[in-house]
Design a protein that fits this description.
Blueprint (H helix, E strand, L loop, with lengths): L53 H6 L5 H20 L7 H17 L1 H9 L4
């Protein structure tokens, strides 16, 4: 007969208690990974640039025709690889292109639509 206070055997080993992260001298928890070196302003993405750095970041951009074509090519390749060239795709990538086309065509024909809207047909 089993003892009335016996605990059932556990199938999982007991996990060690979580240890706290070491504290840096400036306060706050320090990550186990080494700090990443700072990215030069020239190589930063637009979303990573702070507002005060924006004029100098724009001054470093290549606004020659070749630079603009290269920027469009890189943007197209990023879009294509993220939304179109995937194993299990959906309608998201193509629907964004179609929505962009609808918005652009409306913007291009807005002045004509605005003019027709105010015209009286009687």
């Amino acid at each position: 007969m089993a003892a009335p206070h016996a605990h059932p055997p556990t199938l999982l080993p007991s996990a060690p208690a979580p240890r706290p992260l070491p504290v840096s001298p400036r306060g706050g928890a320090r990550h186990d990974k080494m700090a990443q070196p700072p990215v030069p302003l020239k190589d930063m993405k637009l979303l990573d640039v702070k507002l005060g750095q924006l004029p100098s970041w724009l001054a470093m951009r290549d606004f020659t025709p070749g630079g603009i074509v290269g920027a469009f090519r890189r943007g197209y390749e990023r879009y294509y690889n993220k939304y179109i060239n995937v194993k299990k795709g959906g309608l998201g990538g193509i629907s964004m292109v179609l929505a962009g086309y609808v918005v652009m065509s409306y913007i291009w024909s807005y002045s004509h639509l605005k003019h027709d809207r105010r015209r009286k047909y009687h």
